[in-house]
Amino acid sequence: MTLPFTSVFGDLEPRQTVTYLVVLAGAVLSTGFVVAPVAFHRVLFRRRQRPWIVEAANVCARLGLVCFALTSCGVLFFVFDVVLGLWPASIAFAAAFAFFLLLWGVVPWWGDHHAERGDPPQQ
Prior knowledge:
By secondary structure, the chain is mostly helical. It has one domain (about 5-115). It is about 80% helix and about 0% strand. It has three helices and no strands. The termini are far apart.
């Protein structure tokens, strides 16, 4: 967050400056989505809004995870871009994106798919 206040910020390429700002905005969005259910609960506590709170919390958590994954990939892209250049940064972004997609998308889908088929859990 302190990068704009350093002397090297002016040396960044326009792409790197935009990436920095997008990543910073992504961090704010991620935080907002992940913390929103806490605010929902505090405001609506004991007002018989439980179904709405649960559904809204689920949507916010999913959006927060997507924003967090993209922000993390963006941070990796930014650092690799500054240190090594565009192509290594693109590869790092793609690898991190594939990691999150596999871990947070494919693995739960695979587990759910096997649960629907009635396969016994493996130890």
